[in-house]
Amino acid sequence: MLHSKGNTRFQILANSCMLAVTLMVVLPFLLVFISSITDENVLISNGYSFFPEKLSLYAYQYISGQGAKIFRAYGMTILVTLIGTAVNLLMSSMTAYVLSVRTLPFRHAITFYIFFTMLFGGGLVPTYMMYVNTFHIKNTIWALVVPGLMLSANSVLLIRTYYVTSIPEALYESAEIDGAGRMTVFRRIVLPLGKPILVTMGLFTGLAYWNDWTNGLYYLSGKDGQRLYTIQNLLNEMITNIQYLASGKVQNVGAEVNRMPTVSVRMAIAFVAMLPLLIIYPLLQKYFAEGITVGAVKG
Predict the structure, then answer these.
(1) What is the DSSP string of 4-63?
(2) Which CATH number goes with the domain that contains 105?
(3) I want to staple 267 with a disulfide (CB 3.0 to 4.6 A). Which of 35, 220, 233, 282 is the partner?
């Protein structure tokens, strides 16, 4: 009986803590959405609230007026995220597998060299000059993909650590005895058993590509560059334009500008940008734990 009461109390405490954590995560997203459909004047006078006095969809109407640009920007964002994440994961996982091989010559030196790149970089100006003058990625789709590929040292080290600590060496030895080469071991053993860390790092990499706007700011300009805008670059441009028009520096822009949403549209833009991630993220959770016990060594 005492054990049952203690277990019940623990369950109540654990569930209460999880409920509090869940609310801390969900409520900010809910507040962003409610603020995006709150009337602009109410939002300015009363501030952010879960129960606004007046609702308005004018912010979304303003965004929908840019429909063609938004759809193109969404398509570009999805394309860049898919290409960048796939190539980044492939490069990182292959490099991590090579570093996990204990017989690799100069293994520790190569690992330190990769780690060193996490601490020191060339700086913004040299990086810009290299990408523009050497790789010629300015105003091309590669301007949104290539810079992210050069920042995956953290992924390489984390994936390598997972390979070393979670995949038994006996599996490699058994595969080599059966005549499997390095590429076969990588495809048949390392990738399936490494699915949890690969999905996790893929999610982080995908988030980085989805939320990135600095590469577009640095390497996209003019009409050619605007056609390659991602959703983050487009929304940032929209916010800049709204702030400029609302500042009063432009004369004779009409009464429509006076009622243009400045606060609510920011919330609407933020919600539009993060909505796909809120939909995709729960679908990937099941893969985090999957594959840990697959192919375990039989005793």
Answers:
(1) HHHHHHHHHHHHHHHHHHHHHHHHHHHHHHHHHTB-HHHHHHH-S-SS-S-B--HHHHHH
(2) 1.10.3720.10
(3) 35
pLDDT one-digit tens code per residue, 60-97: 877 777 667 778 888 888 899 999 999 999 888 888 88
Residue 16's alpha-carbon distances to 8, 27, 30, 214, 245, in angstroms, are 12, 16, 20, 40, 48
Q: For 259-290, write each residue's pLDDT tens digit.
A: 556 677 778 877 877 777 777 777 766 665 55
Nearest to 264 by CA among 59, 57, 46: 59
Of 144, 139, 143, give the one whose Cα is nearest residue 81: 144
Within a domain: residue 294? no
AA identity, residue 237: E
**Type of residue found at 289:** A
Q: Is residue 124 part of a domain?
A: yes
Q: Domain total for the chain?
A: 1
